[in-house]
Q: What sequence folds into this?
């Protein structure tokens, strides 16, 4: 498969990523929704683990580290959705993550990325971070910036582990299936201990929406993990973050939301970064 085809798949995955986030955000308790999403995912993939090879060696390290970091990220994301803290934090976190993961992959010599490619990743990150200016206040909130960078670090490290993990196996489906099977148990245990009442009060309509979000979510991330076996991790991570731009497009064309000038500028800058990456 050509790089162009893989990039198109990544953009499709980004669209799916935006969709499941919109669904989860619409729920009364997004933290419970996310926990149920990954729990459904684990249940769905339980029978499939018997049809793929058992991971061996260092692959288990990548799986366990990914599980811990993904669980932490999902708990933080659900909590932020519930508190509506996401409009400033999320663009910075998702914008910085591709740059961080590129640095990590270069340090550990996982990928060779040309200078032009690194420039493209930087431009993409800038385009995403610009969205946070939409909610910028005159007083700089260093606490929120710190949280944003911490979340960016979590995203970048679990992305690196998943990229390295899928490259440590002969068949991508081995890592993908075991990753998805293991991924839901920590989050659902946390929510059971902290949000038990809300967990058992989920309505059938909410459970159906969560199931749809589950299918969309693992379809999107399966594409991303598979892509990291074939393309530089930094490229995949940066193009994947077009989900923020996709969310704006969904809001404009489907939900009839207004799109600010900042988001338009962000989209243009992001597109320029994509062109640079593609031509690197």
A:
């Amino acid at each position: 498969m050509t790089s162009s085809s893989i990039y198109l798949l990544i953009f499709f995955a980004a669209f799916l990523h935006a969709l499941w986030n919109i669904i989860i955000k619409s729920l009364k308790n997004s933290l419970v929704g996310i926990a149920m999403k990954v729990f459904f995912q684990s249940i769905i993939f339980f029978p499939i683990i018997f049809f793929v090879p058992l991971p061996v060696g260092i692959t288990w390290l990548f799986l366990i580290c990914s599980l811990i970091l993904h669980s932490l990220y999902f708990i933080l994301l659900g909590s932020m959705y519930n508190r509506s803290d996401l409009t400033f934090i999320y663009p910075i976190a998702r914008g910085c993550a591709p740059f961080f993961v590129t640095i990590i992959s270069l340090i550990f010599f996982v990928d060779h990325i040309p200078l032009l490619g690194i420039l493209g990743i930087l431009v993409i990150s800038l385009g995403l971070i610009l969205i946070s200016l939409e909610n910028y206040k005159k007083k700089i909130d260093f606490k929120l910036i710190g949280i944003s960078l911490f979340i960016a670090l979590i995203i970048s490290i679990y992305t690196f582990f998943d990229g390295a993990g899928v490259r440590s196996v002969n068949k991508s489906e081995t890592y993908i299936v075991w990753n998805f099977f293991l991924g839901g148990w920590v989050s659902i245990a946390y929510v059971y201990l902290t949000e038990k009442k809300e967990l058992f009060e989920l309505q059938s309509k909410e459970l159906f929406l969560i199931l749809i979000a589950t299918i969309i979510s693992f379809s999107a991330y399966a594409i991303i993990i598979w892509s990291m076996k074939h393309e530089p991790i930094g490229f995949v991570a940066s193009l994947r973050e077009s989900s923020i731009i996709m969310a704006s497009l969904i809001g404009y064309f489907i939900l009839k939301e207004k799109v600010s000038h900042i988001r338009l500028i962000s989209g243009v800058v992001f597109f320029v970064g994509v062109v640079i990456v593609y031509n690197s």
